Amino acid sequence: MDIFQKCLDFRDADVVKEAGLYPYFRTISSAQDPVVRMDGRDVVMLGSNNYLGLTNHPEVKKAAQEAIARYGTGCAGSRFLNGTLDIHVHLEEKLAAFMKKPAALTFSTGFQVNLGVISCLVERGDVVYLDKMDHACIIDGARLGFGSVVKFHHNDMGDLARRLDLRDPNKGALVVVDGVFSMEGDIVNLPRLVEISQRHGCRVMVDDAHGIGVLGANGRGTAEHFGCEDKVDLVMGTFSKSLASVGGFVVGEERVINWIKHRARSLIFSAAPPPASVAAVLKAIEIIEREPERRAHLWENTNFMARELRALGYDTGESKSPVIPLVVKADQLAFHMAKRLQQEGVFVNPVISPAVPPGEAILRTSYMATHTREHLDRALEAFAKVGREAGVIQ
To answer: Is residue 4 situated within a structural domain?
Structure first.
């Protein structure tokens, strides 16, 4: 058997392309602003994770440019060996202070954070408990560890409690969940989760990729939002959403971060985050701290769109965040509507299994602080027109 045979036989993408509905790897020729340029046309961007609108901020770009001028374009090695610059250390100190945790550690991508952290903590004999809708990088990190993996029903704290009741108290246990679930837009019931976990002697890790900068009075994420920061042991974040760059980090107790620093393979064997990316994050944090009005405007836009989309008749699930899914059920319908919306000047992301359960396809929409009411009204006109054409709304 040729190991490439499965590649030669793979036709799923070809079928969608032949139908003229292929929705992936679409090309954008401008910055990730509220309006982007595609195929020579202006399109309202409702598919970006640029929640605070900082990726094209002049101060962020200037900081990145200055870092390149000083440090060059890359680090030419891993953090573990020759790749640690003083700017990396400065960012980790800044992140720890911002997140109100003793220590922080940066990685080259957010995906690598969960791969490295979970796999190096969950050793043979340990158990990691995952929400069934956790992000792929959490699932992959758990798979790479040598411990056992137990999944509980999505955001079902009763199910988590039942599964923890069965655990061996002599084995180490870690509960890992998303703060904001990236497709559904709902928020974990963190107060109940930490109460159950503490009662059973389990540590808690929250992936707050979509919560940092968005939730909490100061933008520290889900734990701040619920007032239980002291009960969450580890918080993971990414730089590719609100922090306007690429990379990721984890914060927690100093001895735990020290262990991760010396055990996480995705850190030790990967090149360090480039200076421009690090400088961009430093400047983004500064802006987040000095301009809380950005977060306030993000929530004004979010609440407006959630209300108006539901008024049109769309099923938006349990979303309580700037990620608002439009449930359309059928994969082909999601592809078709995404194409029609782009033709009408609106970019959305069609999402199918395995990112959502089979038969529960969605159009994933997400919002920025920098969207204007004019942008959103234009999008709503398109949602009304295309939704009625497709029979999703009346």
So the answer is: no
Query: Are 153 and 267 within one domain?
Result: yes
The DSSP bridge pattern shows strands 248-252 and 234-238 to be antiparallel
Confirm whether 266 is a catalytic residue.
no
Query: Does the residue 266 lie in any domain?
Result: yes
CATH number of the domain enclosing 325 = 3.90.1150.10
Among residues 241, 297, 371, 375, which one is catalytic? 241
Q: In a structure prediction context, what are the per-residue pLDDT tens digits for the chain, which is 394 residues long?
A: 999 999 999 999 999 999 999 999 999 999 999 999 999 999 999 999 999 999 999 999 999 999 999 999 999 999 999 999 999 999 999 999 999 999 999 999 999 999 999 999 999 999 999 999 999 999 999 999 999 999 999 999 999 999 999 999 999 999 999 999 999 999 999 999 999 999 999 999 999 999 999 999 999 999 999 999 999 999 999 999 999 999 999 999 999 999 999 999 999 999 999 999 999 999 999 999 999 999 999 999 999 999 999 999 999 999 999 999 999 999 999 999 999 999 999 999 999 999 999 999 999 999 999 999 999 999 999 999 999 999 999 9
Residue 196 shares a structural domain with residue 140:
yes
CA distance 159 to 193: 11
Q: Is 185 exposed, middle or buried (0-12, 13-18, 19+ CB in 10 A)?
A: buried
> Catalytic pick from 119, 182, 197, 319?
182
Same domain, 284 and 307: no
Domain membership of residue 41 as a residue range: 10-45+292-390
Residue showing tokens 């984890």: 250
Domain boundary among the residues 275, 290, 305 is at 290
**14 vs 6, 19, 193, 341, 391, CA distance in Å?**
14, 9, 43, 22, 26
At 361, the amino acid letter reads A
- Asked whether residue 274 is assigned to any structural domain, the reply reads yes
182 annotated active-site: yes
Choice among 57, 88, 101, 210 that is catalytic: 210
Q: Is-catalytic flag, 241?
A: yes
